Amino acid sequence: MAPNNSKLLAALLHFVLLYFVPLSSLSLVSAAQKCGLKPPNSASSAAASPAAAHPGSGPYNNGSTGCSRNGAMIEAVLTGWYPGWLAPSIPPSSLSWDKWTHLTYSFALTGLDSSTVILNSDDQQVLPTFVEQAHTHGVRALVSIGGWTGSMYYSSAVATAENRTAFVGAVTSLVKQYNLDGIDFDWEYPNKQGIGCNIISPADSANFLQFLQELRQDPVGAKLYLSAAVGISPFMGPDGTPMTDVSAFAEVLDHIGIMSYDIWGPWSSGIGPNAPLDDSCAPTPAGSAVSAVAAWTGAKFPANQIALGVAAYGHSFRLANQTDFSLYAPFASYSNPLVPSSDGNGGVDACGNPATGGGGTDDFDFSQMITAGFLNSNGTPASGITYYYDNCSQTPFVYDPDSGVVISYDDTTSFAAKGQFIKDNGLRGFAMWEVAGDEHDILLDSISQAMNIEATPQPRYRNFVGLHSHTSQVNAVRVDFSNGTSLVLVDTPGFDDTEKSDREILKIVANWLREVRQYQDSNRNKLEISGILYLHRITDNRMGGTPLKNLRLFRKLCGDDFLNRVCFTTTMWAESENDQWENAFQKRQAELEATFWAPMIAQGACTRRFRGTQISALEILQEVIATAADRKRHQILEIQKELVDLSKRLPATRAGKELHGIIEEMVVKQTDLLGRLQSEMNQTSDPQVLRELITELNDLRREREKALKDMRRLDLWATGMEDELWAEQVVALYEEIQSIAVDTNFIQPNIRFL
Predict the structure, then answer these.
(1) How many C-beta atoms surround the C-beta of residue 688 within 10 A?
(2) What is the pLDDT of residues 236-260, one digit of tens each?
(3) Which of 85, 253, 380, 568 is 20 to 30 A removed from 580 (C-alpha atoms)?
(4) How far apart are the C-alpha atoms of 435 and 443, rounded to whole Å?
(5) Cis ω on the peptide bond leading into residue 736 (within 30° of 0)?
(6) Which has more confidence, 280 or 452?
(7) What's the rounded Cα separation, in Å, for the pair 265 and 316?
């Protein structure tokens, strides 16, 4: 059975950047210059040949990829809003963090003063915990500004250049104070009334765009993840009708979340679906996911920057005639709300008006439907409850004949339908209002699985901090997108591998690269290596000896012309649990960049730090792919050019000769040790000193002999004449060492040095 590509993506990123952290391991990233709109339905895993050996990539624990504002790879969005007022009963620590890529804290509010963003005192206490939990689990932490009750002063905050600059300052101050990863702008609505007392202006949408553009110019704002919660129609233009071109917003926003719910409710003329997937069967179309996505994409907003808003709640109605339950039937007004208010607003709304129903609500969270007896604990209809599913709108309804109450809501079937819609239409993902409304992740798992995203917790980097290499061969996975482009991620064994010698590693990597190059030539294939991640443990205390030799070998393999596609990436930063370690690692990073990597950085190589989170891994890959898009196309590694274009044997390549040079250095060191040993024998009678020198010489001899045997076995030897020369040197050195051993009283004459 072919593996699921979304799962492969998630696993592969963990393996390469979160799991395989051997010193000097390589990750070869290959990507087309376009971006796919949707994950594949299936893919075949493959080994071996370049046609099937393919690097794949997936940024988060949940998987799929798309395209960012700058053309780099992006992750699927599995997000939702967390209402801060629910913290006393549902604290941030209780959320299933590992099933989300982003979570948004709701709400901060706009105020009369554009230079401030308002957080009430309770939110100020809860938000730091929310952010800490998000970052612990590798999830982006955002704060939503606005909402139904908090959008009153949005219009004035962006109305003038002075106000926009002040509002940018307020937003970035909020970000820095709480260590946020992004902001969600929930303006309900530009140039359209929401709650009833919002300030609105015909210039709202244009001013909002200018504000976002200015925010992106700010050093803090440039790095933020920015989203916007939007209605089912594009932003309103100055004439009060939806804009026909909102493409400029796509340049400054990472995604929009279309709030395709609250379509039918107690304000409607009849009982209708709260969040219909389609509304083509409604007597009076009021909106749906299908029509909303069509409206936004028709206004030139990219589909792969759209997250579909999904509802973990439903609206209830009481039938006017308890024997007449039918879709779009009239309903009676409530005299008392069925569900008490949980938002702390009591009986007054944000405009100061008495709230409908005395502060209660006719809404039921999915979890409240279980508590109230409409559903069983697994989300299925309870005994005595009538269940009806409208196939046209893909909406379930439950009806209690005893009370005459009908609830339009979402269940696993409707969420799966929406997940399929997201996948089929290449959307970015989904945004759930609200995450605490689900019960045991019943809805979350349903929509994730329908998108081919495994909604199960993945182990984090901290669980995989062993010092051994876990890659013994070139491993690669390819992900094909709907527009015919591909993204490929390759993981190679690293030099200083714990099971294979550097000679074996070079041959494995070189042979794979040669096959890739030959395949490109024979098939005129446009697959190219976009970048290389060179992984180095920041926990290693020194950089000398073998690591330096391997660094030279790596440079010869790449060639100077390819170094502008190399990114030196330090790992194990997750181990810096206190300031002392962090400071030590910072100094070590500076030393690496200023000394050991400096010549290659001068040739265009970059450096990055992997912080042990999925966000950090994604950002590194984004950087490499974005950088590759700006480089000259069809660059190849030096060793590919030598092996294929120049038809050289591996021993004759620059990398192959470097191996010979390493062995020559062993000979020099061995000769030096021999001289020191002879000198010590003439000057001291201390047996311990002599034993230590002979032990060191013996170890070096073994290392060199192993290297020579590897070179011959792997056909890395250059010429027979050199072979004979090496053999003569080995015999001569052996005889000298043996004679020294016999001359000492503390070394047995039959001691072996091989």
Answers:
(1) 9
(2) 999 999 999 999 999 999 999 999 9
(3) 568
(4) 10
(5) no
(6) 280
(7) 8
